[in-house]
Amino acid sequence: MKKFTLIELLVVVAIIGILASLLLPSLGKARAKAKMAVCKSNMRQINTWIFMYSDDHDGYYIDYDWGNQISWDDKLSDYDGRNMSDGRKRNGAVPVWYAYNPVIYACPSDELQRKWGASTAVFTRTYVLSERRINGSGNLLGWAPGISGSGLSQKMTNINSPSNTLIMAEVSHSLNLVGHIGLNTVPPGSYGTYAIPHDGLFGANYLMADGSVKKLTYTATRLQSDGTMPSGISGLGSMWDAGE
């Protein structure tokens, strides 16, 4: 029986190493695309629950309750299977022992560690709704013409172009937690620093009002219909504008 020489073994090992180095980048890209696919699927599922909520609330999008510290995702617990009590909804960030793991609220590409005070025993929430604000006279503020605010939200039927109006974005931030009210909505002017850059810097996922999920650059979401950027932090005329 012929034995392999040391040189022959080294050649085989070298060939295996070369093949592995060629395959690893492809595997990494495949893993990233798989994570992004799960992220998009999560957004579509959450949108289904939002539609169910809207159907029970005269066609309005889900809001949040700043006074009672109830976030929009905790309001969705009546639809996502968690069925949290009102007391638990008011607890702030949901600790891991309060509910089953609401993994669907976290994008697999969002690997940033979350904290609530000194505790890391909390759930990651990646997704946030576009922020809606009005002034003391009840007029919509141009820098936050989104769908959800504290005690107020846009009506679904008032959105003129659902396929070009975003309602949900991704935010990677240590305080973006399931049940935490502080970052459960975001205005367009401050969003750029929080976006998750899937596929390098070529775009993040955005849920549109028609239920589709688009991968877009932050700049593309801010463009107005005439191709110009809104002034300052305004979202008027862009994909962040859900209408009056």
Automatic annotation (TrEMBL):
Entry coiled-coil feature ranges: none
InterPro entries referenced in this protein's UniProt entry, alphabetically: N_methyl_site, Pilin-like, Pre_pil_HX9DG_C
Name the UniProt record assigns to this protein: Type II secretion system protein
Organism: Lentisphaera profundi
